[in-house]
Amino acid sequence: MNTTPRSNRLHIAFFGQTNAGKSSLINALTGQDIALVSDIKGTTTDPVYKAMEILPIGPVVLIDTAGLNDDTRLGILRQKKTIDVLEKTDVALLVFDANQTPHQVDVDLISAIKKRNIPCIGILNKIDDMPESNATSEQALKDYATQFDIPFVATSARTKQGIDSIKDILIKHSPQDIHEHKLVGDLIQPGDFVVLVTPVDSAAPKGRVILPQQQTVRDIIDHDAMAIVTKETEFAETLRKLGTKPALVITDSQAFEQVSAETPLDIPLTSFSILFARHKGDLNSLIQGASTIDRLQDGDKVLIAEGCTHHRQADDIGTVKIPRWLRQSTGKDLIFEHTAGVGFKDNLDGYKLVIHCGGCMLNHKAMNHRITSSLEENVPIVNYGVLIAYIHGILDRALDPFAQAKMIWDESK
Ligand code: SF4
Known about the structure:
- The structure is a single chain.
- This protein is an alpha/beta fold.
- The protein has 3 domains: 6-173, Rossmann fold, CATH 3.40.50; 185-267, Rossmann fold; 282-412, Rossmann fold, CATH 3.40.50.11410.
- It contains 15 helices and 14 strands.
- The chain is globular, with a radius of gyration of 24 Å.
- The chain binds iron/sulfur cluster (SF4).
């Protein structure tokens, strides 16, 4: 079973007019019936996501989106969802029917893609339907590439012509850095010991450790260091028995106070949520967001944004715990609003702070888009991990391993 988390996969999104052949191309590219294909315009409604392995590209998520030129009321709603997909897109493939003239929506989409600095590749599809197809498609390819100023390939999903060229051009134009966002490897040396503290309480999943903990262990061993995993109840004994100082201790936030008390001050200590705030987004911006919490006033509006619509428990973190902690810690009468799911708020007018979840279901691109959008609208943003560390008075120590973030924090307090 392939278990690369979806958020760590290259996100390749297919866009284009209705019936340009996006779904058929995805099926031809993967050799599977992933997308729903029909001659009826607008068959793809909500974006369809499929995690898979494309050799030699590696783990990817293919995203099939609704056609852009459906101007019915429902079609306009679908288009909004299609545009939202850009938030998380690492590479955009814009599909054209070689036998139709490009539409203004194609021009608008390309400019939206370029504005976001997303690599974009044009696909001239259905070339087998063109009259005298070879010479004509070559000329058409040149014309399209000049008109839109992006690289193009010619394909036919039906005859599979040009399908391998899509892979070649994807390899050439895909961003190389999506797996390079630092987790823990840059904080340790080969041969180091790292102690991970993972409480196993009633909220822990049965029979396994959670994904962020798995990813951290993997990153430690990938860097030729040694991971020692323990519960908080055995932590002090683990340190004693180790016989040598660990290079780093990483703990779940809820055990931070105890672990901090038991970790000598010359051993760097941080939390999984701080590590992932850096890995997933931009720790420095989130730290600056935390520094504005004390400036909140009565009646200020705070947006709590979550990356998915997960099942809420009675003492839910986003709707119950964070509002309670924040009211207690600031002593202010704050107004909380909530958003959850794929799209982020288009307009942050009137908000004094955005508090975002850890974004485990979002890729780096999507999380960064949310951070940048907030900052562009002059609304500070913090995430759950940094906020919880701040409210519980542990942010200072949890930032010790991150020199730049620590400096920003010290200056902004
Ligand atoms: S951290 Fe965010 S994206 Fe992950 S499960 Fe919670 S709400 Fe969803």
